[in-house]
Amino acid sequence: MVGGAVPAGAGIGLRFQHHQEVLATRPAVPWLEVHTENYLGGGSSARTLELIRRDYPISLHGVGLGLGDAGGIDMAHLSRIRDVVRRIEPGLVSEHLSWSSVGDAYLADLLPLPMTEEALDVVCRHVAVTQDFLQRQILVENPSTYLRFEHSTIAEWDFLTTVATRTGCGILCDVNNIFVSASNHGWNASDYLANLPVAAVAEIHLAGHTVRELQQGAVLLIDDHGSRVAPDVWALYEEALNRFGNVPTLVEWDSNVPTLDVLIGEAEQASRYMERTRDAVPA
């Protein structure tokens, strides 16, 4: 098995549509990332991932743990995640800075948190529980958001930085999410990057988004992972590389999933940015 660390190259999100083609053609990508929840039940998909894992380092990206859930971590869900971690032995494990359940009701979305001291304590407690249970560091991803809470008192980048400082977790810096949220809320995306701790950023995500026109000339950006990475996001990605260096970068594409060669082409574009950054560093 390949196993081990995820390399500082540009990988792709592996979706079911591409399982068999990846097995058959072994494309020249350095690593792959999958959504953890797609493999909790075992079965043929998990067996296929085990085969693919023989040739590629794997990152597990969770979407359902709910680090910000007020009711606490669902330990049964976390136990299933641990089973997948033990089976796949991923190089990276990540989750979102979000909440997704109320009582017994699970809301199939990554919902935004109020940026408050109370929410910060909840997230830090849940990250600590998760890392202790898995016996490994996790990465926490910044969200894409479409509203802000009036009673928020902490800037999102400071919130995320404090979570990393208190718990020892890493940060998954989603550059597209930063661009989307900054555009929706009037933030400065470059300032967001500048306020994240360099040493904590262990992975970068890139994806496409949709621009929706609203009334009176306003626009709303939707993080739908359904298109190529936008030029403005590529520019922000170059800023991120100049700040954080060449960390593992992942191209996500979850709706209107294209052919594998299109997805690999986006990863190759990210690789060219990484090569430029590497060449610019003095020897």
Q: What do you see in this structure?
A:
The structure is a single chain. This protein is α/β, with parallel strands linked by helices and 283 residues long. The chain has nine helices and twelve strands. The chain has helices at 19-25, 43-53, 75-88, 117-134, 156-167, 175-185, 189-194, 231-244, 260-280, and strands at 10-13, 32-35, 58-61, 92-96, 99-102, 105-111, 139-141, 170-174, 201-206, 210-213, 219-222, 249-251. It has an eight-stranded parallel beta barrel with strand order 1-2-3-4-7-8-9-12, surrounded by four helices. The chain is globular and about 50 Å long.
Low-confidence spans: none
Strand order, largest beta sheet: 1-2-3-4-7-8-9-12
Distance between the termini: 34 Å
* Secondary-structure element order, N to C: EHEHEHEEEHEHEHHEEEHEH
The number of strands is 12
User: Which class of secondary structure composition applies to the elements?
Assistant: alpha/beta
Gyration radius over CA: 18 Å
Number of helices: 9
Oligomer: single chain
| Basic shape | globular
Helix content: 40-55%
- Mean pLDDT, as a whole number? 93
| Beta-strand residue fraction | 15-25%
Biggest sheet overview: 8 strands, parallel, barrel
How are the elements arranged and paired?
Layout: E1 10-13, H1 19-25, E2 32-35, H2 43-53, E3 58-61, H3 75-88, E4 92-96, E5 99-102, E6 105-111, H4 117-134, E7 139-141, H5 156-167, E8 170-174, H6 175-185, H7 189-194, E9 201-206, E10 210-213, E11 219-222, H8 231-244, E12 249-251, H9 260-280
Helix pairs in contact: 1-2, 4-5, 8-9
